[in-house]
Description:
Elements: E1 2-9, E2 17-25, E3 30-32, E4 37-39, H1 43-48, E5 56-66, H2 73-86, E6 92-98, H3 104-113, E7 121-124, H4 137-148, E8 156-160, E9 163-166, E10 171-172, E11 181-182, E12 190-193, E13 196-201, E14 229-233, H5 241-248, E15 253-258, H6 266-277, E16 281-286, H7 302-307, E17 311-312, H8 318-330, H9 338-345
Parallel strand pairs: 2-5, 2-6, 6-7, 7-8, 14-15, 15-16, 16-17
Antiparallel strand pairs: 1-13, 3-4, 8-9, 9-12, 10-11, 12-13
Amino acid sequence: MAHATPLTHPAPPAASRRVVVISTGGTIASRWQGTGYAADASGSEVLAGAAVPHGVTPEVVDLFNINSSRMTSARQLALLRAVHEALTDPGVAGVVVTHGTDTLEESAFLLDLHHADPRPVVFTGAQRPLGTADGDGPGNVYDALQVAASVRNLGVLVVFDGAVHAARGTVKTQTLAAHPFADPSEGRVGRLGFGRVDIHRRPERSVPLPLPATGTGAATPGSAELPRVDIVTHHSDADPLLLDAAVAAGARGVVLVATGAGNATPEFVGAVAAAVARGVLVAVTTRVHAGPVAEIYTGGGAVDLVAAGAVLTGTLRAGQARIAVLATLLADVAPERRDTLLRRLLGYPESHPESAPAA
Length: 359
């Protein structure tokens, strides 16, 4: 919901506020390896290069140390549990997660879907490696610590280059620029400057999910224990071959990245109907940068895809749409209630006939 005036948070008070910093690798922890950069620095090394806001006491947890292109659902669930474990301590003011930028948008959204605590979880990282003269990591860490120690009831946030973004809808829009994240369909949540955190709007969020069952994802990364959710992209010469192959490979969810406002071909409609008949959750997003998918066109368009059983993802793009499908499959709901839950996670309004809370 929008606010007419900024919700301004001054610098943290003199009394120390503890912030847990969970390190997962990424560019912010990367150093030269002879042929390129890779994550190898500990969270303490990352934090050593950053100033710490007055009144904040950081406590580092090294969870794992990987380039974020190597992120897996199992690792994301391990991160989810690590954050929840940190927040069991009532003396912790908030959590900062240092994360590579490639898959940050997916991890942040998964945590936001399960985040019921008023204390913030703030993701940050870097576009330039550790120790470089023009490195952006130290400034981003300082800002993230300040946000984590001073805001409440905003869910999971992404703080980068002086901007505060909501987890939902925020994606990487620049490969190398210092301001890599934005929500193409919504504005940022706030900004930082001159010792202040200015929050301009409260993010729209679905009712948080409970944590997945304890055993889910406990095996090694890539474990077959987790439901397979694939992404298939439509293009000018596309046919349903890859969608059918995903289903044949055991996918329990598929995200179709359609064209325009969510359009494909009659052949895709048939493949979606067949997948849904087998109990596969199918979500439809678009390869277009901004704007919602919508039921406008037939002839293989979103009108027909929805009629075949697919769920439109609103303004969520492929990576976060996949996370919504994954979270739905991991939730403790009956199969016949999964479409309803998925719609809720995608942000369907409560007035929508199929958006009632799942039992």
